[in-house]
Amino acid sequence: MPEPSTPVTGTVVMLGGRSEREFGVVRELGYRVVLLDERIPWHCMPWVDAHVDIGLDDWGAVADAIRDELGDERPAAVLTHTEPRLPLMAHLGSLLSPGSPGLDAEAAANCRDKWRTRTVLEAAGLPVPRFALATSEDEAVAAASRIGYPVVVKPRDGAGAFGVRCCFGEAEVREAFGALGGFLPDGLPGALVEEYVDGPEFAVQTLTRGGTTQLLSVFRQRTTPPPVFVELGYEHPCGLAAAHHEELAQLLQDTLDALGLRDWISHTQVRLGAEGFRVIEVNARRPGGRLVEMTTAVSGVDMVEAVTRQVLGLEQALPGPAVAFARYTSIVFDEPGTVLYDEFVPDGEGPGRPVVELEIAPGETVRPKEDPQGGVYGRIVVYGGSAEELDRAEQDVRRALDLQVVFGDGLDPAPSDSREFKSCC
């Protein structure tokens, strides 16, 4: 078990989690970790001080379990890095640690429910796509007709772009609406039908302290064209002119203020259309995949540590060194077949070291990126002092991998990493 770097000063209750870093930073700051989840993996056991196996859907039972575990001790904080558990975290924080900083219940609900997000922002006069909530196929078609095609149909809640589809006609709207139950059978009722904003997309990571929002990173996001939005990669710098960057910073400040997010982190999707910026989605969490490490590399701020310090009411650490250029490229395929490559582990350490991850083994079969069951099978992240350095670094990785697809052999394709469907326009 990792030892805390300072004498233990309290207990942090964590709801779910699978990453050593999530637990390790709490202990480094001098706190015990009590982990609650329905099925706690064995590999997490050494990273925590105590654990309670309990389902997290019964909020009252979870609160009672925490009281039983801690006795008279008040938790220093309740924390989760898992988006579906944010409302529970906010509820337990106000119940068991009233007055503590962090995400409150209203802000959690405002961000978790996409319809509520848009309703709040529209009422505040902030730019969002035209939208409507539909509870049936007919309502979805009627909403699309009012808004005008193309439209985007998406679930009210859920992470990433699960179930998100751009539709160009009535038949596609009906198909997209009908498919949502298969993506999120336990999600909030109804679906969002909204205007498709055509233009470049940006992933914006922020840290808000006392109501003041700091942009940590702004990445230009690349995706496949509609109807589905498969993530192809991210770039830093994002390419925005200084005036647009200032406008974006003010938009994020106003957006998070309207949603009630005062002491937390966020990952927000924004598009720059013909009429200016439009807020596409606001997530009260850090980004997925390797965008956390990429944000650390370009800003010097570790979002995992930052949100942990924030919820504990601690001063933020000074930013570390930052790189000037970064690129995240998804590993996707144009044709189906059997994938072959050489194992490769990059040399070096620290934030400038390339990241190379593949979720498939040599000899497994894959689908093309446009296939409904296709998508992303890994990623390459490189850093440097110029765009040319990024090109060379990525080319070096690809040469070392010798990644290729040969004709299919009749085997079932390997599942893609659907977590990478992050574009939510």
TrEMBL record:
Gene3D superfamilies: 3.40.50.20, ATP-grasp fold, A domain, ATP-grasp fold, B domain. It comes from the Bacteria. InterPro entries: ATP-dep_AA_Ligase (IPR052032), ATP-grasp (IPR011761), ATP_grasp_subdomain_1 (IPR013815). Keywords: ATP-binding, Ligase, Nucleotide-binding. Residues 118-312 form the ATP-grasp domain. SUPFAM superfamilies: Glutathione synthetase ATP-binding domain-like (SSF56059). This is ATP-grasp domain-containing protein.
